[in-house]
Hints:
homodimer, 349 residues, alpha/beta, 434 Repressor (Amino-terminal Domain), Rossmann fold, six-stranded parallel sheet, four-stranded parallel sheet, elongated, DNA-binding
Amino acid sequence: MKSEEIAKLAGVSRSTVSRVINNYSNVPEKTREKVMKVIREYNFEPNTSARVLAGKGTDTLGLFLFSIYDKKNPYRVYGNSYFGPFLEAVIDVGNYKGYYVMVHTIYNPSECWRIRQTFSQRRIDGGIVIGTERNQEIQSILAELNHPLVIVDYDPEEIKAIMPKDAKIAVINSNDVKGMESCVDELVALGHTRIGFIEGRDSTYSGYVRKEAFKRRMAYHGLPLNANYWLKGEFVKTKAEAAVKKLIKSGDLPTAMIACNDEMALAAMDTFKNHGIRVPEDISIMGYDDSPIASVTRPSLSTVRIPFYNMAQKAVEALSDMLEKKATGLRHYQLDVELIQRESCIKRP
Amino acid sequence: MKSEEIAKLAGVSRSTVSRVINNYSNVPEKTREKVMKVIREYNFEPNTSARVLAGKGTDTLGLFLFSIYDKKNPYRVYGNSYFGPFLEAVIDVGNYKGYYVMVHTIYNPSECWRIRQTFSQRRIDGGIVIGTERNQEIQSILAELNHPLVIVDYDPEEIKAIMPKDAKIAVINSNDVKGMESCVDELVALGHTRIGFIEGRDSTYSGYVRKEAFKRRMAYHGLPLNANYWLKGEFVKTKAEAAVKKLIKSGDLPTAMIACNDEMALAAMDTFKNHGIRVPEDISIMGYDDSPIASVTRPSLSTVRIPFYNMAQKAVEALSDMLEKKATGLRHYQLDVELIQRESCIKRP
DNA sequence: GTGAAAGCGCTAACAT
DNA sequence: ATGTTAGCGCTTTCAC
Lengths: 349, 349
């Protein structure tokens, strides 16, 4: 079924059918209804490719998830507390606003060209990128991209530096400084002074900001940074586990630790428990993200809640604004976070 | 940049560029290289809409997730153990095979038309549907659909009945009979005789099959079905919680319960614990799915592992086979499941 | 207010 | 082996 047949059946021309489909104002109600009747009767839907080729948008958004996880692990993206709820929200809000959503996973900076390809093939009108690490590949893609794009978790200053002035781009972050400060403050309030830290990744904006915020907040409270208590976890379970084992072997433990995500916090809890070190009695553990597991594990995990759903919502809205030309240039949104007190952090023993 | 410009720069005609892009055999290596050089230099990507309009496929798969969850809950799909890993795997395997993946969430049978629309607009070549309940809407969509489709968790007999004989369709299930039988067998082996059951949804194929399998296996072991131990959970946390509360209030508890998914099992565990009933010391709890939370909660959850990743993989492969015309008619695949013994089920007290 | 006709960028049948 | 040409189904100027 094509518009020409609809036209014939309704006794009008293709142009009129097109006008009806696109809600042109200069079609009298009577004609419109006559055409709509035929359209409904035959469940006619215009061919998207033809519309796009003739100049319309695709009404499709591209979502690009950068995964740092092992390709073999079936839960790698959904274990990742970011992606699950975020993806869901993008699809939700996107569909609600009338967009189709195309999803890609990118496992490696060398696959960044997929972003450019998807745009070049005119498959999408705009894109959302999340989980990107800072590297040459993504930077060169961004610098040359001339389509609306939303980047989640990225340094807005760097974007400003590499993007052309008139690029339609939005950056969305959560308040990592406040989040990490509230972690330190909470542990300090509980009487802890020997506080350990499990780093994320420096190449990630949030990983970097959380690390810096931790250092500054510790100094603010006049607390020392003990190199032995500083673990490199890279946001990954196995790395955190290995680092915690080394810490335990050293025989010198802090009374509390902050992990840069829930997954590492969980790995730390399990490792401590397996070595007969009780959580939270012997050591308090603070997570970050408030992923679904945080409330389910025992002891439940004190953590910082990132408003993933709201961030995704904001992302789609920002993209939609840029697509409808309501917005140009660089915009930056920072969403608020919240400390969630649960069982894994208690008063210093 | 369009193929005509590439042609001019390479000193050939558009047809030759097209032949190179589509890997036609009758292009000599020398010409191919000459054209490819220009294509690479300009990062040329052919316009998808034009290709589709000219008769090529979209190389896009549609994934339709039917969610029974509350639209307000940000984790509703990812809390759903099915969707997270499944979605991930479809994107993964799909991308790997060179397909783009478009994802939709459907919250209501009345939104089923979105499936037909996406096909009618020629946005996708084939579709995968998961989580569908049996109802008029989906049946009429299926009956009229003339594109390759994969349905996960659906009654193959019904499909056979409503679909035209030559329809390209595949049904993928996991072995729910075996899964539920192994649950009952395990509890019986642990000495339990008073075994309760938290139902899923009858309108769901897996929900129905698990229920029937439970009844039959109890009879097989000569065990009674106590109406008081039979709870309606509808696969949903809150319903399971309410039903368990009622059970507790009755004062008559079984020594073990089987829930039709992990989420309800978790809700049951929490509810029992909150009422001072110990799991597993006072009552054993068996889940179903082996979602990410199952191994993380304490006590960890004994459950049946559904091979989500493999099912998704199979789904994409089956779809791909149908798209490449290697397969026609109805195919049915049933994947194997595995009982996972953890801490929530122990010998009868 | 409505129709005729050009054109979007590509593929494929045909011609050479 | 390569170029020419006719569409694919729609939108959109331009006439009337």
